[in-house]
Design a protein that fits this description.
alpha/beta; 46% helix; transmembrane; Glyco_hydro_1_AS
């Protein structure tokens, strides 16, 4: 999970302790000891390009990320996901890790070009790719772990990008529906939880506005809105296809995973700041959630983008328009809402004049700020602000009729140089964020499950392997990509087994015990370079010496033979 590098202003803030945000009316309360409802589902997540590797193996086609990552200068240290965690070959080992953690569900994505190399079902279905996902699903179910399958986690077939312009083209709606229909056909008898798109905000903004992500286009002011428009319609089409063709047979659910930060007004007594914070949420989460729940874009988006488009001399708004038929078609097409959340921003009013240029960020007329006291252990954008999570969840409850929610992403990173597996900052992050989730459940928010991001360290998009979100450390220097448990594995495992935070005494012991158990993992990791060196000696040096010996023996034999003659 990565996000665009918006320039942030550090702010030493002293917000009134009595200033509650209107939507939530929640105070920043102390830690709450209690448990989640019976049947609450605990899991971890991953995505295909970030973990599978095997980028050109067994008939897989090229994705936009394969192409993008191979371009010099696009990824930190020019790294690629070509091999990544080698999850394509090690999925059985990874499921054993999940079994040890006693997880209830595992969220993963299907690589579109792995099963449809050209993106089109009519051209070729790659049965080896189908078999890989089928085996993965079967093993999960045999291990009593529920598969939660994401259909699109950013790896569009490159052919569709080259031929049609990817999500800029309305034809993607039909092509994506064909791909989804194939997945329902082959896996739907075993998969009951489907996610159409992961974080379409990133797909749209970072893929088609800033160019930081694949396909790397910079169509400022219009490309992101056009891509989002087609993604919303593609989701709705898949939902209707499933509803008409598959739901009665397979009894599954179709959702979407939307990511959003919380936006808190800098000054809760300043109406302009309150409106700016509300606008921040609507331009982020509401951009996608409001059409899918209510049938159209948020009014504030239509107002601001329309006005700025007019000021720029355009004949129509840069934000596309849904027809009355389309509004009816997309409304209510969410069986559950997947919600990804990592951090919070303070928000204040900031006017961007029309001469500033057309862009998604300028359209919002606001500035994002952070408190320098907030912890920031890894990614430059990710500050630990637990109380924002509860507020965001209550906002969803209020705005969208308290839908069924699954938290589909939540976690924290660290920078690559840190190889200490005693990740106390991650344990603290999980402790505080999951506790805010528990408070939201007590508020009546309809949350059914939580997904920690992520099972493994993986390829973090434009940051390559320089940032690590995994519960398990992956040694990318070693071609076997061994996994080493961080302390947070044991900590999260105890949250799962207790279904929450039963008592202060018990919770305080978890971190201490987790740190104690991680010391042996640190010793194994410290020995890993030596193991890698020994593997190199075994696999490269020894065969080379043997080959030289054979050649020398042959030369000596020929020399003796010539002397005899």
């Amino acid at each position: 999970m990565l996000r665009t590098g918006v320039r942030l202003l550090a702010l030493a803030l002293c917000v009134s302790a009595g200033g509650d945000f209107d939507w939530t009316k929640n105070e920043k309360t102390s830690f709450y000891f209690g448990t989640f409802p019976t049947g609450f589902s605990w899991g971890v997540g991953s995505s295909a390009y970030q973990t599978e590797g095997a980028w050109n193996t067994d008939g897989k086609g090229m994705s936009i990320w394969d192409v993008f990552a191979h371009k010099k200068g696009k990824i930190s240290s020019n790294e690629t996901g070509d091999s990544s965690c080698e999850g394509y070959y090690k999925f059985k080992d990874d499921i054993n890790l999940m079994k040890e953690m006693k997880l209830n569900h595992y969220r993963f994505s299907v690589s579109w070009p792995r099963i449809l190399p050209s993106g089109l079902r009519s051209e070729h279905v790659n049965e080896k790719g189908i078999r890989y996902y089928s085996d993965l699903i079967d093993l999960l179910l045999n291990s009593k772990i529920t598969p939660v399958v994401t259909l699109y986690h950013w790896d569009l077939p490159q052919v569709l990008q080259e031929k049609y312009g990817g999500w800029q083209n309305a034809s993607m709606v039909g092509y994506f529906n064909e791909f989804a229909n194939l997945c329902f056909e082959r896996f739907g008898n075993r998969v009951k939880h489907w996610i159409t798109f992961n974080n379409p905000w990133s797909i749209s903004v970072e893929g088609y506005e800033t160019g930081e992500h694949a396909p790397g286009l910079r169509t400022r002011g219009s490309g992101a809105y056009k891509a989002a428009h087609h993604i919303i319609k593609a989701h709705a089409k898949v939902w209707h296809t499933y509803d008409m063709k598959w739901r009665s047979k397979q009894k599954g659910l179709i959702g979407i995973s939307l990511s959003a930060d919380w936006g808190e007004p800098v000054d809760v007594s300043n109406q302009r700041d309150v409106e700016a914070a509300e606008r921040y949420i609507h331009f982020y989460l509401g951009w996608f959630a409001t059409p899918l729940f209510h049938g159209d874009y948020p009014a504030v988006m239509k107002e601001y983008i329309g006005r700025k488009s007019g000021q720029q001399g355009l004949g129509a708004s840069r934000l596309p328009v849904f027809s009355p038929q389309e509004k009816s078609y997309i409304r209510g097409t969410v069986d559950f809402l997947g919600l990804g959340h990592y951090t919070t921003r303070y928000v204040t009013q900031k006017n961007y004049p029309s001469g500033f240029g057309d862009s998604y960020f300028a359209d919002r007329d606001l500035a994002e700020l952070v408190d320098p006291k907030w912890p920031d252990p890894g990614s430059e954008w990710l500050y630990s602000v637990p109380w924002g999570f509860r507020r965001l969840l209550n906002f969803v409850k209020t705005q969208y009729g308290n839908p069924m929610i699954y938290v589909t992403e939540n976690g924290v990173s660290e920078k690559m140089p840190c190889t200490d597996l005693c990740d106390d900052w991650r344990m603290q992050y999980f402790r505080e964020y999951i506790n805010e989730l528990l408070k939201a459940v007590r508020d009546g928010v309809n949350v059914k499950g939580y997904t920690a991001w992520s099972l493994l360290d993986g390829f973090e998009w434009d940051e390559g392997f320089s940032e690590r979100f995994g519960l398990y450390f992956v040694d990318f220097r070693n071609k076997n990509k061994p996994r080493f448990p961080k302390a947070s594995v044991q900590f999260y495992k105890r949250i799962i087994s207790s279904n929450g935070f039963p008592s202060q005494r018990e919770v305080e012991s978890w971190k201490r015990k987790a740190v104690e158990t991680c010391s042996s993992s640190n010793q194994l990791l410290a020995a890993d370079p030596l193991i890698g060196h020994m593997e190199m000696v075994t696999e490269i040096v020894v065969p080379t010496i043997c080959t030289l010996c054979i050649l020398l023996s042959a030369v000596f034999f020929m020399f003796l033979l010539r002397r005899r003659l």
